[in-house]
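Each field is set out underneath.
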Amino acid sequence: MAGNREFFNRRLHSLLGVIPIGLFLCIHLVVNHFATGGSSSFNRAANFMESLPFLHILEWILIFLPLLYHAIYGLYIAFTGTANVGRFGFFRNWMYLLQRITGVITLIFVAWHVWETRIAMAFGTALNYQMMHDILSSPFMFGFYAVGVVCAIFHFSNGLWSFMVSWGITVSPRSQVISTYVTMIIFVVLSIVGIQTLFAFV
């Protein structure tokens, strides 16, 4: 019974990491990338997202609650799991370790980012280009955001590889090698998008 429950929890944790959390990450990166077109471009994109009907309900159902479960169970895995030495090779064990490290860093980053944006908005601060410019004008905060964004993207990209394995999408060794290249390409492309966006705000 306990084994079935853990199997279910791990499957759910993996699924939520891709859908909806990973999907939201990609949308968030694309919307923020409008900053490369200037402040007006970003403000229009941000205002469109903020004007979506039932936004706060959707945020809780599709983002905050799944993220809370993924984070709590992810911390449990990170601090109780052991490296898959017998199952995977040297490279995959490094990816396993980095997945846990980037998960913890991403959690800290997301918590701080929510505090600086969503909580600030609840107290009347407008979500616009100027908000992010003020945050990222500090070299320390720019570095913190750069590390946080890259860690979040790596955690999603590498987690996508694990998701395809655990859900039986990539079963053969060849398919897992191919998915490694695909997910690393996703990591590089999204990282470029994320870093370009940060520079656009400063």
Remarks:
- The radius of gyration is 18 Å.
- Residues 6 and 128 are 42 Å apart (CA to CA).
- The chain is about 80% helix and 0% strand.
- Residues 2-200 form a domain with the 3 helical TM bundles of succinate and fumarate reductases fold (CATH 1.20.1300.10).
